[in-house]
Amino acid sequence: MIPAPFDYAAPTSLEEAVGLLNEHKGARILAGGHTLLNEMKIHYIDTPSMLVDLRRIPVLRGIKHAEDGTLRIGAMTTFAEIASDQGILKRYMALAEAANSTPDTPVRNWSTIGGNLAASSVGADLHAAILTFEATLNVFGRQGLRTITAHDFISGGFVLAADEIITSLDFPATAQKSGSAYEKFKNRASGYAVCGVALYAVPASDGTLRECRVAVTGVTNHAIRLPHIETILQGKRPDEELVITPNMISEEQDFIVDLAASAEYRAYLTQVLIGRALKQAIAETTSL
């Protein structure tokens, strides 16, 4: 199908982009377009008055590793760039694995981390990894620059103003000898996660888990952390039998029921994938 006519602009600065969004009511940001353009074609959304393409704004691209171990990723950085960055592969493996889990090479080369966040698609792989690493978002608009937590944004607790643009994501430094992993059971039709688990683990000197963070995508309307599961895992040895049941996983959430899977099956998948992700994360710590 063909979308209705719309105007198009490709500004070269953030200030110009914000100005266009203010000037043209109903304008939308184009930050890759994998989701937006498809929704326009099938008339799932009203056609925007203008598409403001961010790909010509250089400050929105790139991956920067700071001396203090922190990481900044520009909002227009593609999945492919994230998945192949050596620093991310070394310190933020779950993020690289989530970016690389998209099965379509053209999509990885075109989709961006900022666009993926803004689209808020159910089962988006990167969202779980972003939550696990406790990232923050930098947002620029007419009122200036502000910072919000990824948790607030992904959970819907924060909504971008019409003229606001995600400029970058900041990731805290990971601990020495930490490991992470992303495990996924995908929807074969869409490639999105029916269930995807990101896990970050920091072992203590005695072999128990000093810290463990777990996030899951595809099982609810947005990616979530599982704090009650994190509490169970912390202080345990990864090689001991962990008593985590599907009922324990889903007891605080309403899991999705659709044609892909029941709520019960999604809870079971979460249990299985937590175990796999933990095994991979611990294996990564021993290889450092």
UniProtKB/TrEMBL annotation:
Coiled-coil intervals, chain numbering: none
InterPro entries: CO_DH_flav_C (IPR005107), CO_DH_flav_C_dom_sf (IPR036683), Diverse_Substr_Oxidored (IPR051312), FAD-bd_PCMH (IPR016166), FAD-bd_PCMH-like_sf (IPR036318), FAD-bd_PCMH_sub1 (IPR016167), FAD-bd_PCMH_sub2 (IPR016169), Mopterin_DH_FAD-bd (IPR002346)
The keyword Flavoprotein is annotated on this UniProt entry: yes
FAD-binding PCMH-type domain sequence ranges: 1-176
UniProt-listed Pfam families: CO_deh_flav_C, FAD_binding_5
Keywords tagged on the record: FAD, Flavoprotein, Oxidoreductase
GO MF term list: FAD binding; oxidoreductase activity
The name this protein goes by in its record: Carbon monoxide dehydrogenase
